[in-house]
Specification:
The structure holds two protein chains of two kinds.
Chain A (H helix, E strand, L loop, with lengths): L1 H33 L3 H4 L2 H26 L7 H17 L4 H24 L5 H19 L5 E2 L22 H19 L1 H11 L1 H6 L4 H27 L1 E2 L7 H11 L11 H20 L4 H26 L2
Antiparallel strand pairs in A: 1-2
Helix pairs in contact in A: 1-12, 1-13, 3-7, 3-8, 3-10, 3-11, 3-12, 4-5, 4-6, 4-10, 5-6, 5-10, 7-8, 8-10, 11-12, 12-13
Chain B lengths: L1 E10 L2 E11 L4 E5 L6 H8 L7 E6 L2 E2 L5 H6 L2 E4 L11 H5 L6 E2 L2 E2 L1 H13 L17 H14 L4 E5 L7 H16 L3 E5 L3 H7 L2 E6 L2 E7 L5 H9 L18 E10 L3 E9 L3 E6 L5 H8 L7 E6 L2 E3 L5 H6 L2 E4 L3 H5 L6 H6 L7 E2 L2 E2 L1 H14 L16 H15 L3 E5 L7 H16 L3 E5 L3 H7 L2 E6 L2 E2 L3 E2 L5 H9 L2
Parallel strand pairs in B: 3-10, 3-11, 6-9, 9-10, 15-22, 15-23, 18-21, 21-22
Antiparallel strand pairs in B: 1-2, 1-4, 4-5, 7-8, 11-12, 13-14, 13-16, 16-17, 19-20, 23-24, 23-25
Helix pairs in contact in B: 13-14, 14-15
Classes of the chains: A mainly alpha, B alpha/beta.
């Protein structure tokens, strides 16, 4: 009896884990069937386009997964992307090297995250409110820094990070895609195999219990938001790279895409569950949806409606599966 | 081993501890007893480093002890097992047990060592549902409590504080826990044990201290002191009888007729008739399907088959809880904090919400009427509160439970479905609740009372049925049962 239950729930849990992937394949399959030119939709060329488009949301989703697993939320991602993109662009414009400019952009993301973390832990402001505040602050700072204009940059290799067709060609996909893949794997291992990672889950699962066991919850939360901020900074660099300029008004609402990616991938806003692999699949699902609707020549509003419905359905399906699997 | 003297702690205007002295020897099991709100949990939290005392001193092994945090207390060998389960449901048994003490190699978790250590602890407390890799959220409540206990063991504590560790454990796990306590005791560990069950305290503890209003008022060895004396110390006055005079024999007309209700997986078959003025007790082990049975009657669990008639009228199987409430059913949840009360709303809102009609006109609430009605029930049940407008959260557990029951009274429910109505509350509140239940029956209501506490079932019920593995035995008059025959029915079947 006991063994039966365990086997049953293990099967159920596997299904829950794989469900986002099944959803992604479903989306790809449906568009391939509807498309007049399925070989074009499924072409390597189109795959490269989708992957390059996904980088910004996917990098953000790595950071956001950590935050959501810990029971938090970050609404300032879009603004942080704009701010860090502008920082990178300003440094490039002023003659700093690409490496220094990227480092500054990423560091600015980390700073924004740490400030979020400090507001949440020291001022005892709910993450929703603290990061809502930061949404305004970072956006304003980006406009200030960019003097309310886009910042043009000289051509450097930074501009090649998220291109659709990379040079050298043997890279197959943009360097940013490879970087995202490597970071996703590294962070998955960190979340599963390090004490820090388990603390992230513990805080999201039951913060009071974690504190009672001597876990320094405040310090870890600041670390979570700070570390996630580095990823948002990297997203900002990629955004700048794609636009080839620093635009303080870019990425408005991107935080919602990033949150949606995590949630479609099985993350729970109540904390305690979520995987980076799931979030990556979630980001890809949305990118394929966008790409598919564009290929079909459907207007933008249809795409928005479909993505909205998919988010709700994905979470609803997840609830049902979990209830069935008893996990 | 552990010596406390003159501990004081206040929260704003409330004095939680007002001079507590305690002196424990190594290998002693010391029972801390007292009504809810007497300061027992506060005291344990002070010892465990979660709260700092305002005055007084603590010594462990004759060295001054003033832990700055729960972590510091853990390092000093003091472990607290919480009353409210404080586990991370998404993590595994091993991860929960070793939280804060994870074996590592340079920041990386040593998973093998973790599993080994957890398995070693599990061996000391062999429990069928527990394996190191099980996710805690999938475990039954009783098994979760065990995980909590193992967490204290993992810290190799020399002083273990247990805050009502058995409140959600079935008897077989209580026996396992006691075996573990005896083993700890033999190895010189000191245990402070809080429980509301005096019988249980006698079974396991050597000495006792009674707390009342934040003060230690009596202590001594348990042999040679009667329950009556202990209770008198706890409430500060002699208690003549815990239970009120029994309600008169039920009337003949059937109020509720439950025919073969099946609600899988927990409820395999439940049937009974409830007459006007009858109090039907439902005994059984935790997890036997008692809670699910009355939840199914209230429409909170889906019923697969079976009929429920109230006043002779059949309720549709899919009837919503709101419909059933309208038909005269009233439900008191065993989970007071989770679904019994809206803790952040006022007492008045909590009491009047099932029948706002009585204090509103055309959808507009009349606050005066709401206040007066709430106050009436608060007085009837002797709820200790400053005002009907204060949040339910600010009351003690016993008073919160009275408010939850007051709602059913305000609702004028004909049929009261009560799930563990006195679970985890102080004796004074229990007495008030027994009185209210018996009064309801006297006025012609029918009561179904699920309880794990046999003395109260024998104290107030007319009839009793026992749930065993999802099946409810036929109800029989209470004097045909003995505690032994109830246990036999609960385990057998």
């Amino acid at each position: 009896m006991a063994a039966e239950t365990t086997a049953g729930s293990r099967y159920g849990r596997l299904l829950v884990t794989l469900a986002p992937l099944i959803g992604l394949l479903l989306v790809i399959g449906v568009f391939a069937l509807m498309s007049d030119a399925p070989d074009q939709y499924l072409s390597v060329r189109n795959l490269r386009i989708v992957l390059a488009q996904t980088v910004i949301v996917a990098l953000g989703a790595i950071g956001m997964t950590m935050i959501i697993v810990s029971g938090g939320i970050d609404l300032s991602v879009g603004s942080a992307i704009a701010l860090t993109g502008v920082v990178t662009a300003v440094l490039l414009r002023d003659g700093y090297g690409p490496a220094a400019a990227i480092a500054a952009g990423v560091a600015m993301g980390g700073l924004v995250g740490v400030l979020n973390g400090l507001a949440i832990t020291m001022l005892r402001v709910l993450p929703f409110i603290a990061t809502l505040g930061m949404l305004g602050v970072a956006r304003g700072a980006a406009k200030w820094l960019g003097d309310q204009q886009t910042v043009n940059v000289p051509p450097t290799w930074v501009n090649e990070l998220a291109v659709t067709f990379p040079t050298p060609a043997w890279l197959l996909v943009a360097p940013g895609v490879w970087l995202t893949l490597v970071l996703a794997i590294v962070m998955t291992v960190v979340l599963i195999r390090t004490v820090f990672g388990r603390r992230v889950f513990a805080i999201g699962s039951n913060e009071a219990a974690a504190r009672a066991c001597g876990v320094a919850t405040d310090r870890i939360k600041v670390a979570i938001y700070g570390l996630a901020g580095l990823f948002f900074g990297l997203s900002g660099v990629m955004q700048m790279s794609r636009l080839r300029q620093g635009d303080p008004t870019v990425a408005i609402g991107t935080e919602l895409d990033v949150i949606a990616a995590v949630v479609i991938g099985g993350g729970s806003l109540a904390g305690g569950e979520g995987t980076i692999a799931g979030a990556m699949v979630g980001a890809l699902t949305m990118a394929f949806l966008r790409n598919g609707t564009q290929q079909m020549g459907w207007p933008n509003y249809i795409q928005e409606i479909i993505i909205g419905i998919i988010i709700v359905l994905a979470v609803a399906a997840d609830r049902v599966r979990r209830a069935r699997a008893g996990v | 081993m552990l010596a406390l003297s003159g501990l004081r702690k206040r929260f704003g205007a409330t004095v939680a501890l007002d001079g507590v002295d305690l002196d424990l020897a190594p290998g002693e099991v010391h029972a801390l007893i007292g009504e809810n709100g007497a300061g027992k949990s506060t005291l344990l939290n002070v010892i465990a480093g979660a709260l700092a005392p305002d005055a007084g001193t603590m010594r462990v092994n004759d060295a001054p002890y003033a832990p700055a945090s729960p972590l510091a207390a853990r390092h000093a060998g003091v472990a607290l097992i919480h009353q409210e389960l404080s586990l991370c449901p998404h993590l595994t048994v091993a991860e929960n047990v070793l939280m804060g003490l994870e074996p590592t190699r340079a920041g990386w978790l040593d998973r093998a060592a973790m599993r080994r250590e957890a398995a070693r602890l599990l061996e000391a407390f062999s429990h069928p549902d527990l394996a190191p890799d099980r996710v805690v959220g999938t475990l039954p409540i009783a098994a979760r409590q065990v995980v909590e206990i193992l967490r204290a063991m993992a810290a190799r504590a020399s002083i273990v504080l247990m805050d009502e560790p058995t409140s959600s454990l079935p008897r077989e796990d209580v026996l396992r826990l006691f075996a573990l306590i005896r083993r700890l005791k033999a190895s010189g560990v000191t245990i402070v044990y809080i429980s509301h069950f005096l019988e249980e305290v006698r079974e396991i503890a050597d000495r006792f201290t009674v707390l009342r209003d934040g003060r230690s008022v009596a202590s001594g060895t348990l042999t040679g002191v009667t329950n009556e004396t202990l209770i008198a110390h706890m409430v500060g006055r002699p208690v003549d009888a815990l239970f009120p005079e029994r309600a008169p024999a039920p009337q003949e007309d059937v109020l509720v007729d439950v025919v073969d209700v099946v609600s899988p997986p927990a409820v395999r078959r439940a049937a009974f008739q409830l007459r006007r003025g009858e109090i039907l007790g439902v005994a059984g082990l935790v997890g036997s399907g008692r809670t699910e049975t009355i939840r199914a009657l209230m429409g909170l669990e889906p019923a697969e088959s079976g009929d429920v008639r109230v006043h002779g009228r059949r309720l549709a199987r899919t009837a919503s809880p709101a419909t059933r409430l309208g038909a005269g059913l009233g439900y008191l949840s065993e989970d007071r904090k989770g679904e019994g009360l809206a803790l952040d709303m006022s007492l008045a809102d909590n009491i009047t919400c099932t029948r706002y009609g009585a204090c509103s006109t055309g959808g507009w609430l009349r606050r005066g009427a709401q206040r007066d009605q709430a106050r009436r029930w608060m007085e009837a049940l002797a709820v200790k509160a400053r005002s009907p407008w204060q949040a339910a959260r600010t009351l003690s557990g016993g008073n919160q439970q009275k408010v939850a029951l007051a709602r059913l009274l305000h609702q004028h429910a004909d049929v009261l479905l009560l799930d563990e109505p006195t679970k985890g509350i102080d004796i004074g509140s229990k007495v008030e609740i027994y009185r209210a239940i018996v009064d309801c029956a006297r006025r012609g209501a029918g009561v179904v009372m699920v309880s794990s506490y046999l003395p109260e079932l024998f104290g107030v019920c007319h009839t009793l049925a026992v749930m065993s593995r999802g099946r409810l035995t036929p109800a029989r008059p209470i004097d045909e049962w003995t505690p032994e025959s109830v246990m036999e029915a609960a385990i057998g079947g």
